[in-house]
Amino acid sequence: MTLKTKSKQIPAKEKIVLSFEDNLLLASLFGQHDEHLARIEQALGVVLASRGNKIVLEGEETACREARDVLLYLYHTLKAGNAVSIGDVDGALRLVQEKDQDLLATGAEKQDTGKMTKGDQKAEPSGMLKIHTRKRVITPRTATQNRYIRELASKDLVFAAGPAGTGKTYLAVAVAVSKLIAGEVERIILSRPAVEAGESLGYLPGDLKEKVDPYLRPLYDALHDTLPAEQVARCIEIGEIEIAPVAFMRGRTLSHSFVILDEAQNTTPGQMKMFLTRLGEASTMAVTGDPSQVDLPPGAESGLQHAIDVLDGVEGVSVIKFTDKDVIRNPLVRRIVNAYDAGEKGKNPRGRAK
User: What are φ and ψ of residue 296, in 5° steps?
Assistant: First the structure.
């Protein structure tokens, strides 16, 4: 009697050596205490060893090639004069794992040995869009973010729906600032439903600015991340940047402007229609929100989802849907989003049925 044994396929191992000409960039590439290399090792299960101006990659073949693409992508980012943070490392890992070669086209896929030519070192990710602001150059960290930026540059009305931490509002503000700097728009208008959907501002202390500021703080934070504080204050003073609740948009025509409606899930269909019809000549409007965090009274319909459904297929309107894969905050945020989604589908966070 002959026993047949089932052979277990062992993943092919690979060793890649990357050589970098610009030693001055390596400290930033490796990260403080090599934290960038450690994050790549942890995410892909490879071993990275730095030796002078070289990095030796060892591990399973596919993982090694993905680690190589991440390192080359980050190196080209530094070569272009942009900083690299641990968040950028996570973004590069996400792009690699999504197999988005349009964004990762840095010449890495043309190399089998890992050796870099001078031409490769000067190359930049060909499909990656950039947002230039006064304080920094902002690049997308997911393919969805890249598509979102492209749509903001080409469409009159863009809806961005998805969970917290995906950059919906931040990127819209960054694009708005870049357009203001370039003279493509004359002003930025930022709006939010205040005090949930009712916008009951009258009983709050202070003038209008003091009443609404607490609800618009995330918009201020994004502005200060893209413009010096004194310039933000000056732009608000002269009207180049206007921040107001949705209720104060009625009756206006917003021309030559970049208009952002944040937390749009907390508008009613009537408020949303009113706001959208404010769009004037040579203007762009970005409407952002998280359909899973509606603060409207029970049974009330969200204006965000209603508008997305009604305007589906309308020329000039784009809808970008973010998922948990696009969360770029602390990695724990993605796990929180997944846990809540699982709970809403009748499962506990561990995936077991209740």
Answer: -70, 160
Q: Are 271 and 193 in contact (CB under 8 A)?
A: yes
* Structural tokens at position 49: 């060893």
CB contact at 8 A, 53 and 23? yes
How far from chain centre, in Å, is Cα 88?
Answer: 11
- Tell me how far apart the terminal alpha carbons of the chain are, to the nearest angstrom: 49
- Residues ≥6 apart with Cβ < 8 Å to 6: none
Q: Which residue has the tokens 């869009």?
A: 129
Q: Phi/psi class of residue 33: alpha, beta or left (left: φ > 0; alpha: ψ in -120 to 50)?
A: left
Instruction: Name the region of 253 (left: φ>0; alpha: ψ -120 to 50; beta: rest).
Output: beta
Is residue 283 a contact partner of residue 156, using CB atoms and an 8 Å limit? yes
CB-based burial, 39-72: b 16+ in 10 Å, e otherwise? bbbebbebebeeeeeebebbbbeebbbbbbbbbb
Instruction: Tell me the pLDDT tens digit for each residue of 83-123.
Output: 888 888 988 888 887 765 555 554 344 344 344 333 333 33
pLDDT at 207 over 80: no
User: 44-56 pLDDT, tens per residue?
Assistant: 999 999 888 899 9
Residue 316 burial by Cβ neighbours in a 10 Å radius (0-12, 13-18, 19+):
exposed
Question: d(Cα 346, Cα 57) in Å, to the nearest integer?
Answer: 43
pLDDT of the residue at 204: 53
Q: What is the pTM of this model?
A: 0.76
Distance in angstroms (rounded) separating the CA atoms of residues 103 and 189: 31
